[in-house]
Design goal:
single chain, alpha/beta, N-(1-d-carboxylethyl)-l-norvaline Dehydrogenase, domain 2, six-stranded parallel sheet, binds uridine-5'-diphosphate-xylopyranose
Length: about 450
């Protein structure tokens, strides 16, 4: 099949590369010229394991092409995927201006029937609104021939990929959700992903839109729940890892997303939980649970900072080695990263911070500038420090030579915000080791 992808962020680019790898001919469009220039050379604009490999492979086989002009490619293809951003507005609701602007362009440029697939995360009712924008133009078109030729079907197909594991997730997704008003279009979209063995959920557009928000909000709720249990563990001398293990063995609960720490970050959970609250409020329903999920997440970083202050006392001129800047491992993304918040708190308190992250340093520099030092290895970051803070769950940190690190530090204190290291082992190594709920 021939497909246009509009927007080459995480969702658009991974979807485009994935669909090309499945054998389709894919044109990816973005308005940012530098980005398209890079992509044409097979260079990804962000770090994502295996992305560049598949990018280069599919460009070579001419199944994947890039353009800055939607007009140039739109009528070569039958499927149009809207993958533009829906960033949060000041009140938490999703900004849909990019989605609607794309719908307007499609309306003006398409001259034959298209299936328009909305992959961007959008509030309930957005797919219907996109369809009404497209339909407007059909009515405006002068001849009967035009009206018959250009018919649009708008299908909701939300994305569930995780950053850092996006390529894997594309080919191994648990489910494919397709929301449509007509069976034929739903089947056509599901067939595009035919080779991916995912359970198919064919439903209405409104339900599909809500499945996406409900999934992210539920996962965020699990994290905030386990973080509250962790805070309680700290008070009653219980171990949250073992509580989570005991809970997760119950198949009704399952063991995933029960890792306590300094709270969730990233480009999805913080934005989507707030947006779902807005969607609920806007429809006259007060979704009380989500308010607590958001509050607990915000509080988690502060509680951790309090723990650090309690142990170190006045932070003025204290030297801190910060391990991790990304919002999680395997990514260079720092959006809503707890590590960045911690760096800011530390600087504000007068501490001198030296940070290391395998991938996110460049992005962190854009936000933190010269307020902290950035170094090229974990060992450099810990030289002569009063304490180490682990803020990202990079597996690399588990494998460090912690005995050597102890020798490099001024005093052996570790604050592990991701519960990454083994407390028993750290005790044996004679560290003063603090984590979350253990
Ligand atoms: C998430 C969803 O998982 C994905 O399905 C959706 O499409 C986009 O949002 P992502 O933001 O890439 O994906 O990362 P994820 O792995 O879900 O982690 C999100 C945040 O939660 C990270 O900050 C991570 O450190 C944190 N987290 C995750 C925990 O604190 N505890 C956990 O048990 C799991």
């Amino acid at each position: 099949m021939k497909i246009t992808i509009i927007g080459t962020g995480y969702v658009g680019l991974v979807t485009g590369v994935g669909l090309a790898e499945l054998g389709h001919t894919v044109y990816c469009v973005d308005t940012i010229k530098e980005k398209i220039d890079f992509l044409q050379k097979g260079q990804a604009p962000f770090y994502e394991p295996d992305l560049e490999k598949l990018l280069k492979k599919n460009i070579k086989s001419k199944r994947l092409m890039f353009s800055v002009s939607l007009a140039e490619v739109i009528n070569k293809t039958d499927f149009l995927f809207i993958c533009v951003g829906t960033p949060p507005q000041a009140n938490g609701s999703a900004d849909l201006s990019y989605v609607y602007a794309v719908a307007e362009q499609i309306k003006d440029l398409a001259n034959n029937s298209k299936i328009v697939v909305v992959k961007s995360t959008v509030p309930v009712g957005t797919n219907a609104k996109v369809e009404s924008i497209l339909a407007k133009n059909i009515r405006q078109r002068p001849t009967r021939l035009w009206r018959e030729k250009a018919k649009f079907s708008v299908v909701s197909c939300p994305e569930f990929l995780r950053e850092g594991r996006a390529i894997y997730d594309f080919f191994h997704s648990d489910r494919l959700v397709v929301g449509s008003t007509n069976e034929k279009s739903a089947k056509a979209v599901a067939d595009l992903f035919g080779k991916v063995k995912a359970q198919k959920v064919i439903t209405t557009r409104e339900t599909a839109e809500l499945i996406k928000y409900a999934s992210n909000a539920f996962l965020a709720t699990k994290i905030s729940f386990i973080n509250e249990i962790a805070n309680l563990c700290d008070k009653v001398k219980a171990d949250v890892t073992e509580v989570a293990l005991g809970m997760g063995l119950d198949k009704r609960i399952n063991p995933y997303f029960l890792k306590a720490g300094i709270g969730y970050g990233g480009s999805c959970f913080p934005k989507d939980v707030k947006a779902l609250r807005q969607i609920s409020g806007g429809n006259g329903y007060d979704f009380k649970l989500l308010k607590a999920v958001i509050e607990v997440n915000g509080k988690q970083r502060k509680i951790f900072m309090e723990k650090i202050k309690k142990v170190l006392g006045n932070l003025n001129n204290k030297k801190i080695g910060l391990l991790g800047l990304a919002f999680k491992d395997n990514t260079d993304d720092i959006r809503e990263s707890a590590a960045i918040d911690l760096a800011k708190y530390l600087v504000k308190a007068g501490a001198m911070v030296t940070a290391y992250d395998a991938k996110a340093t460049l992005n962190a520099k854009k936000v933190l500038g010269n307020k902290i030092n950035f170094v090229a290895s974990a060992y450099e970051a810990v030289k002569n420090v009063d304490a180490i803070i682990i803020a990202t769950e990079w597996p690399e940190f588990i494998k460090l030579d912690w005995l050597q690190i102890k020798k490099l530090m001024k005093q052996p204190i570790i604050f592990d915000g991701k519960n990454l290291l083994d407390p028993e082992q750290m005790k044996k190594n004679k560290f003063n080791y603090y984590s979350v709920g253990r």
